[in-house]
Amino acid sequence: MKAVRVHRFMVYEDIDRPALAPDELLVRIEAAGVGPWDAWIRAGRSALPQPLPLTLGSDIAGVIEEVGNEVSGLDSGIQVYGVVNSQFTGGYAQYAAAKAAMIAPKPSTLNFVEAASMPVVAVTAWQMLFDYAKIQPEQRVLILRASGSVGSLAVQLAHQHQAYTIAVASPDDAERLMHLGADIVLDLHDQAATVSAVDAVIDAAGGEQ
């Protein structure tokens, strides 16, 4: 009979270093982030076409080894972080060819592991607040599941933008979120909790609330 069967799971193997396009950097990877999108790609549920075989991993931090001939402003030896490419693949390796436009110098205040945890979630929080909600200073912003990676960054960004920031989270996270800039923290489990009119709602949880 015919059957769809799995014979092998992910493989740790030797491959050639990636060749660089003119607008790319070769980055020696020091740390790579792990996100739910990696699981979606691995399960064949990516929203983008993903030719096989592929290397998982989008968020990286490392050191530039080589620079494409169309790249300016970044040189070999610079510590960097960012997203490998628009396919969100290629980061779980010793070296990655990364689009220069998606890479930036790593802040000296972050180590490589901290830097690799930031790119996708930080951009997601930024897009939700400013590209879509278009929040302005002194507006009231309600952030659902504010204790998560995207939510906690949204709290910080909203606070820095001088918005009145209302975080929804577990009471265990209240002190941390207040430290990050929340003006008030509502108990996630309190069905009676109410809040006056807000200008934007940032849903960092998804699904039914």
Short descriptors:
Quinone Oxidoreductase, Chain A, domain 1, Rossmann fold, 2 domains, globular
Describe the 3D structure.
- The protein is an alpha/beta fold.
- The protein has 2 domains: 24-117, Quinone Oxidoreductase, Chain A, domain 1; 120-203, NAD(P)-binding Rossmann-like Domain (Rossmann fold, 3-Layer(aba) Sandwich).
- The chain is 22% helix and 24% strand.
- It has 5 helices and 9 strands; from the N terminus they run E-H-E-E-E-E-H-H-E-H-E-H-E-E.
- The chain has a 5-stranded antiparallel beta sheet. Strands 8-7-6-9 form a 4-stranded parallel beta sheet.
- The radius of gyration is 20 Å and the shape is globular.
Question: Would you spell out the secondary-structure blueprint of this structure?
Answer:
Blueprint: E1 24-32, H1 36-42, E2 59-67, E3 79-83, E4 95-99, E5 103-105, H2 112-116, H3 119-132, E6 140-144, H4 149-160, E7 164-169, H5 174-180, E8 184-187, E9 200-203
Quick structural overview:
Helix content is 22%, strand content 24%. The protein is of the alpha/beta class and 209 residues long.
| Order of strands, widest sheet | 4-1-2-3-5
Annotated CATH topology of the largest domain: Quinone Oxidoreductase, Chain A, domain 1
Strand content: 15-25%
CATH architecture label name of the largest domain? Alpha-Beta Complex
Tell me the number of helical segments per DSSP (H or I, 4 or more residues long).
5
Unreliably modeled segments? none
Mean pLDDT: 92
Instruction: Quickly give the structural class.
Output: alpha/beta
Largest sheet: 5 strands, antiparallel
Order of helices and strands: EHEEEEHHEHEHEE
Helix content: 10-25%
**What shape does the CA trace take?**
globular
Write down how many β-strands occur, each being a DSSP E stretch of 2 or more residues: 9
CATH superfamily membership of the largest domain, which one?
Answer: Medium-chain alcohol dehydrogenases, catalytic domain
Q: What value does the Rg take, in angstroms?
A: 20 Å
What is the number of domains?
A: 2
Cα(first) to Cα(last) distance is 45 Å
CATH class category of the largest domain: Alpha Beta
